From TrEMBL:
Catalytic activity: chorismate = prephenate; prephenate + H(+) = 3-phenylpyruvate + CO2 + H2O
Domain Chorismate mutase, chain residue ranges per copy: 1-95
Enzyme Commission number(s) of this protein: 4.2.1.51, 5.4.99.5
Domain ACT: 283-360
Protein name: Bifunctional chorismate mutase/prephenate dehydratase
UniProt gene name: pheA
First and last residue of the signal peptide: none
Residues covered by the Prephenate dehydratase domain: 95-271
Species of origin: Pseudomonas auratipiscis
Keywords: Amino-acid biosynthesis, Aromatic amino acid biosynthesis, Cytoplasm, Isomerase, Lyase, Multifunctional enzyme, Phenylalanine biosynthesis
Summary of the function given for this chain in its UniProt record: Catalyzes the Claisen rearrangement of chorismate to prephenate and the decarboxylation/dehydration of prephenate to phenylpyruvate.
Database matches in PROSITE patterns: ACT, CHORISMATE_MUT_2, PREPHENATE_DEHYDR_1, PREPHENATE_DEHYDR_2, PREPHENATE_DEHYDR_3
Compartments where found: Cytoplasm
Length: 364
């Protein structure tokens, strides 16, 4: 390619960038107008709700539907995710609590869902994320709920039994783990490997093959593990990209998770109900009486009405020995007439039924 061709292309890119800049600014001004209209329509004394997850899901879907490349759909949606995040921040920056410390996968999930223009607050434990949301100190919380290799995150499920919380969204993240060390650590001097118990479990086979005799130490998070090894010459951590970058660690081995499709699903929790988008999921908790056929009775209405169950999980109810609650996720919104009818049918048989929330299916 000649110098001249290159120069002409750069002139074109500069002119396109100017147009993009103008268009983004126009869009941001529109979002400000939306804020003004929302405020004007507000009954006196009521708090405005600027963030609309159902609208954001629709915007991202529309972008993906219309995209014709060369950028992939996910990449394009990610760019729009950030534009929307900045536009919303002009109205009101969202405050989001997540399972910290900084550098956890939960933080990465929060950024993937809300974009980077939020005020994010790391919390030391899942239960604290719930409490922070309940206290109204933040607008939303982000917690892990299940991993494709290791299953349910029980702390999160149990927290739903203790707090009244609305699920307003979900996001899925591919989880890649690396073996990380500080500057002066040599491969053969490692005598301890730190990570979160879930991450140690997700890399169990790799660890058995490569470090069978090295002590595995479970700590509160993989970011915490990364933080520790920064100052220790004889230990390694298992953590992801964000933690590696944040603590300036070296990767001794990359992508050491046992399953290449290892993914975690996260939930956004808040207090705001989300209206239907036409492509939603609902999460409920049900407890049935302890009699034969109870689970069958619970599942029949879903089957008879052709409702797609995406997940069912059992946990001790905490209100009696050997009694259980079921966490069920299914496709649909609790305001859909069919879903409404099914929930009514179930509640006639159930000891208790609570809708945790209906929310747009993960777009990104
Ligand atoms: C602009 C609005 O407010 C917020 C910003 C959005 C955007 O930038 O597209 C979308 C939904 C809301 O979170 C709106 O409600 O349309």
């Amino acid at each position: 390619m000649s110098e001249q061709e290159l120069k002409a292309l750069r002139v074109r890119i500069d002119s396109l960038d100017e147009k993009i800049l103008e268009l983004i600014s126009d869009r941001a001004r529109c979002a400000q107008e939306v804020a003004r209209v929302k405020m004007a329509a507000l009954p006196a004394g009521e708090e405005p709700i600027f963030y609309r997850p159902e609208r954001e899901a629709q915007v991202l879907k529309r972008v993906m539907d219309r995209n014709q490349g060369p950028l992939g759909n996910e990449e394009m949606a990610r760019l729009f995710r950030e534009i929307m995040s900045s536009c919303l921040a002009l109205e009101q920056p969202l405050k989001v609590a997540y399972l910290g410390p900084e550098g956890t996968f939960t933080q990465a999930a929060a950024m993937k869902h809300f974009g980077h223009a939020v005020i994010s607050k790391p919390m030391a434990a899942i239960d604290e994320v719930f409490r922070e949301v309940a206290a109204g100190a933040v607008n939303f919380g982000v917690v892990p709920v299940e991993n494709s290799t290791e299953g349910a995150v029980n702390h999160t499920l149990d927290s739903f039994l203790e707090h009244d919380m609305v699920i307003c969204g979900e996001v899925e993240l591919r989880i890649h783990h690396h073996l990380l060390v500080g500057e002066n650590t040599k491969t053969d001097s490692i005598s301890r490997i730190y990570s979160h118990a879930q991450s140690l479990a997700q890399c169990r086979k790799w660890l058995d093959a490569h470090y069978p005799n090295v002590e595995r130490v479970a700590v509160a998070s993989n970011a915490e593990a990364a933080k520790r090894v920064k100052g220790e010459w004889n230990s390694a951590a298992i953590a992801g990209d964000m933690a590696a970058g944040l603590y300036g660690l070296t990767r001794l081995a990359e992508k050491i998770e046992d399953r290449p499709d290892n993914s975690t699903r996260f939930l956004m929790i808040g207090s705001q109900e989300v209206p239907p988008t036409g492509d939603d999921k609902t999460s409920i908790i049900v407890s049935m009486s302890n009699k034969p056929g109870a689970l069958h009775e619970l599942l029949v209405p879903f089957h008879e009405n052709g409702i797609d169950l995406t997940r069912i999980e059992t946990r001790p109810s905490r209100s009696g020995k050997w009694t259980y609650v079921f966490f069920i996720d299914f496709i649909g919104h609790h305001r859909d007439p069919l879903i409404k009818a099914v929930l009514e049918q179930i509640s006639q048989e159930a000891v208790a039924l609570k809708v945790l929330g209906s929310y747009p299916k993960a777009v990104l």
